[in-house]
Specification:
The complex is a heterodimer.
Chain A lengths: L8 H7 L20 E7 L27 E2 L7 E4 L5 E5 L5 E19 L5 E21 L10 E5 L1
Antiparallel strand pairs in A: 1-2, 1-5, 3-4, 4-7, 5-6
Chain B lengths: L1 E4 L2 E4 L4 E8 L3 E10 L2 E11 L6 E3 L5
Antiparallel strand pairs in B: 1-2, 3-4, 4-5
Classes of the chains: A mainly beta, B mainly beta.
Chain lengths: 158, 63
């Protein structure tokens, strides 16, 4: 037997469920999962890793689209899996597609911002795709498979 | 089939249908358009994300 220096994979999974706090954090009002939302942004917007919270600047506007987007279905808790004694992955994916029904979005958009509407709309992730417009139709964004290599959110050690 | 359009609900037999798709490492996308007399009256799109584009790495300090 030998010890191996590593970051514990369980820790990464627990980061996704707010178990650890090394600094100042908000007081959580409940032990249930937060509510996350997905908002669409114009191709001309500038969302990136420095985005800290949802804001309407650069968000799409149009018929039947509500500012802030739609609620993310979250029926599957984060999973943490070891791949070796030194490496592992914690991952999470929304459990259903995001759907924006009967909308008209005339200006090209190419981004969805996932953010935490329970925690002051703090940003989670920015995902881009080929530029789209919608005319009296539905835009559906189907999530990748919830695996260690394709999940929407992944924290990993290698 | 009834299609929602900028002119209200219409039977698709009255409309010209155009479809397209894109498939690459990041996404698989399909779209459908309906046109009436040269005017776009309906466009829907379905994007399937294949993977998250970024991958966060983490490691502990070495001593």
């Amino acid at each position: 037997m030998a010890n191996t220096q590593s970051m514990c994979t369980s820790f990464m999974g627990e980061l996704m469920t707010a178990t650890h706090n090394f600094g100042v954090a908000p007081i959580r009002a409940a032990t249930t999962a937060d509510t996350f939302k997905g908002a669409l942004f114009l191709a001309s917007a500038t969302l990136n890793a420095s985005t800290t919270a949802y804001a309407t600047t650069g968000e799409v506007t149009g018929t039947n689209y509500t500012a802030g987007g739609v609620t993310v279905t979250n029926a599957t808790a984060p999973i943490a899996t070891n791949s070796s004694v030194t490496a592992g992955v914690a991952y999470w994916t929304p459990s259903a597609s995001l759907s924006y029904s009967n909308v008209t979005l005339s200006t090209a958009f190419d981004t969805v911002l996932i953010y935490n509407s329970t925690q002051s709309n703090k940003a989670v992730s920015v995902h881009t795709f080929g530029s789209q417009t919608i005319t009296a139709g539905t835009f559906t964004l189907t999530m990748p498979s919830n695996t260690t290599t394709t999940a929407l959110l992944r924290l990993a050690t290698t | 089939m009834i299609v929602t359009t900028t002119k209200g609900n219409m039977d698709d037999s009255l409309l010209e249908k155009k479809e397209g798709s894109v498939d690459n490492d990041d996404e698989s996308t399909t779209w459908v358009e309906y046109w009436l007399d040269g005017e776009l009256v309906h466009r829907s799109a379905h994007v399937t994300l294949k993977k998250a584009p970024s991958f966060a790495g983490a490691e502990t300090a070495s001593f």
